[in-house]
Design brief:
Number of helices: 11
Order of helices and strands: HHHEHEEHHEHHEHEHH
Structural class: alpha/beta
Shape: globular
Strand order of the largest sheet: 2-3-1-4-5-6
Number of domains: 3
Distance between the termini: 121 Å
Radius of gyration: 26 Å
CATH superfamily of the largest domain: P-loop containing nucleotide triphosphate hydrolases
Largest sheet: 6 strands, mixed
Strand content: 5-15%
Keywords: Membrane, Transmembrane, Transmembrane helix
Helix content: 40-55%
InterPro entries: P-loop_NTPase
């Protein structure tokens, strides 16, 4: 009898768990999505809403069995494993870094640090231990002023690392985009200092402490791919109140030319969706994707970093865990396609020769300008 009651309780708990994690199943027109399983629909004829529902069902179907397999692939991954031979160039001739670098970008409060903690929990099996401070629970006022490198697999042989960057400001968008361009072109390193115009309140002691942490001895890494983290709840609620600043800002960030790698857009990670109703969550995703001009399903992931109890959504939410793992896996696939060939002796010779020609060109231009001025001065004397 007790056994029967226990089984019933366990089934009820599983049903509640599925309801929480499969939130989209309470959406309008979900019955139409169920009917699609009975036949093979023409994808192009589906409405954007049905495409999103179908994508969420795909994740829910694969998650229980596919999560551990995807974890294993990421754990055994080494930089360059997903590189595909093209143009007759061998893998040994490619400039493949020791570890691919994934950069998390977003505005303050978007959930970048929470996403890093979730990566540690899902991929590094760290449990509920937070590895980085979030903007909501940070005990240090200036902890976000430094770029942070994270080995989310917690493995000495990890083939990739994740960088948590300082959050951008809606009121300093163009200055932030210039800073982003420097990160993408010059590279980033652990504890890299990110000071901005609004940091005037920092004392000399604060700056000195931050500078001491930002050492040039850390390895400088070239950014191989970027993930744009967006607070879907904040963007949706602001748009409903006729405030389109967050929506325009995320478009400027997402469409920044320096973020395109191998002719691919950055990944879009939507967070804080649990703060919206089911219909608002789906509508917000559709509106954001439409505004950005991208697919509603490909390269877009709805990830809840924290559960309703404030814990990391790891084993308790297999759909979120799998979506996060798939996003990292996709980022590494694109990263390995973007590696460049190594410079050989001929390339270096051409580069040095071009520098020399530029130097002589500048030198002779200076001499020509100087001679012109001297000639004009002598001409004035005779007049």
């Amino acid at each position: 009898m007790k056994s029967g009651l226990y089984c019933c309780d366990e089934e009820d708990e599983n049903e509640v768990s599925r309801t929480v994690h499969c939130w989209w199943r309470s959406a309008a027109k979900f019955d139409e999505c169920l009917k699609l399983k009975l036949d093979l629909p023409n994808i192009s004829s589906l409405t954007p809403r049905l495409k999103v529902l179908r994508e969420m069902e795909r994740l829910a179907l694969i998650a229980p069995e596919g999560l551990n397999e995807l974890r294993h692939k990421l754990l055994t991954y080494r930089s360059g494993d997903f590189w595909v031979p093209t143009g007759g160039i061998k893998k040994e001739e490619m400039e493949i870094p020791q570890a691919n670098t994934i950069l998390l970008l977003g505005f303050t409060g978007s959930g970048k640090s929470s996403l890093v903690n979730l990566m540690y929990s899902v991929l590094g099996r760290s449990g509920l231990i937070p590895f980085t401070q979030t903007s909501q629970g940070s005990s240090s006022k200036y902890s976000t002023l430094l770029m942070e490198e994270h080995n989310v697999l917690r493995s000495m042989q990890s083939g990739f690392c994740v960088y948590d960057s300082r959050g951008f400001d809606y009121d300093q968008l163009y200055e932030n985009l210039e800073e982003l361009s420097s990160w993408m072109t010059e590279g980033v390193h652990h504890n890299q200092l990110c000071l901005r115009l609004g940091d005037d309140a920092l004392t000399e002691e604060d700056i000195e402490n931050l500078t001491s942490k930002s050492s040039a001895k850390f390895v400088k890494r070239r950014v191989n791919y970027a993930m744009v983290v967006a607070n879907i709840a904040e963007i949706y609620k602001a748009a409903k109140a006729a405030d389109f600043k967050p929506l325009k800002a995320i478009r400027e960030l997402f469409c920044c030319p320096v973020l395109r790698k191998s002719n691919e857009n950055p990944l879009l990670i939507l967070t804080h969706g649990d703060m919206l109703s089911t219909e608002e969550r789906i509508e917000g995703r559709l509106k954001i994707c439409e505004w950005l001009g991208i697919s509603e399903t490909t390269g877009v992931y709805d990830i809840v970093c924290l559960t309703q109890y404030g814990y990391l959504a790891e084993e308790s939410d297999p759909v979120t865990a799998y979506a996060l793992s798939e996003a990292v896996y996709r980022a590494l696939l694109i990263s390995d396609r973007g590696h460049c060939p190594k410079k050989n002796t001929w390339d270096w010779a051409v580069l040095i020769l071009s520098w020399i020609m530029c130097f002589f060109g500048t030198f002779f231009a200076f001499l020509a300008n100087l001679c012109t001025k001297l000639g004009q001065r002598d001409k004035l004397k005779y007049l």
